[in-house]
Specification:
The chain has helices at 6-12, 18-23, 102-106, 121-124, 140-160; strands spanning 41-44, 51-58, 61-69, 78-80, 87-89, 93-99, 110-116. By secondary structure, it is of the alpha+beta class. The protein is globular and about 45 Å long.
């Protein structure tokens, strides 16, 4: 991923109002980000835990999405993140929704998916050992590539749903 400034990050969000952009809190370690090793940037808002952010490169340009975490916790045994395809204890996977970009989002339309609660998919797929006893690991490179593609597809769904050019 190409290096981004704070202004680049704020201007990348496709589904945020100007008021929401003022509320965006960057990760505490943003200035230390190793951009050469990132496929996408994702983090939970340090001030408002119900918000999260994902920025992926779509057609070479950063496209950011503001996410909302669902309230409550799951009592199930395990759940799978739809981005990194990693089995996690159920309380570590959360339903995130993103308001669609453009007019559709202004009318309340959104898309959602289950994602690791801490948005650490980028790091999770790089772990050498399986995270769950029944998890079968593909090669790390394939997992990394798959996670990047699924993240870009999710951000793309937010863009395409409103007819925003990509």
């Amino acid at each position: 991923m190409r290096p981004l400034t704070e202004d680049d990050v704020r201007s990348s969000f496709v589904n945020a109002s100007p008021d929401e952009l003022r509320l965006v809190s960057l990760p505490h370690d943003f200035v230390l980000t190793d951009w050469d090793h990132l496929d996408f940037l994702a983090w939970r808002d340090p001030r408002t835990r119900s918000r999260g952010y994902v920025i992926a490169e779509i057609d070479g340009e950063p496209s950011g999405v503001v996410l909302r975490a669902a309230d409550g916790t799951s009592r199930g045994r395990a759940a799978m993140c739809n981005l990194c395809h990693t089995m996690q204890p159920a309380d570590q996977v959360v339903m995130y929704t993103a308001r669609k970009a453009g007019e559709a989002g202004a009318h309340g339309d959104s898309v959602g998916t289950y994602i690791c609660a801490d948005l650490s998919c980028h790091e999770t797929v790089r772990l050498a050992a399986p995270l769950a006893p029944n998890e079968v690991r593909a090669s790390v490179d394939r997992k990394i590539d798959g996670t990047r593609r699924r993240t870009e597809a999710f951000v793309g769904r937010v863009l395409e749903a409103a007819g925003v050019p990509r």
